[in-house]
Amino acid sequence: MSRIMPITPINNVEQLAVELKAIRRQLKLSQQALAERSLLSRRTITNAETGHSVGLFEFTRMA
Questions:
Q1: pLDDT of 1 higher than 60
Q2: End-to-end C-alpha distance for the chain, whole angstroms
Q3: Which is the CATH superfamily of the domain at 13-61?
């Protein structure tokens, strides 16, 4: 069962980090669970949620 979320433009890295964390929490996933599902490290998830550098490849794996 998939819910379509409205698309809103994100203007900066900090806003993107906040949105990513909010979506993960809305889905009731821990950072570790998201990391396992996306085949990334928990550290990569943490970096993305705190606005640190994450490559485009890694970022798209979280989608």
A1: no
A2: 16
A3: lambda repressor-like DNA-binding domains (1.10.260.40)
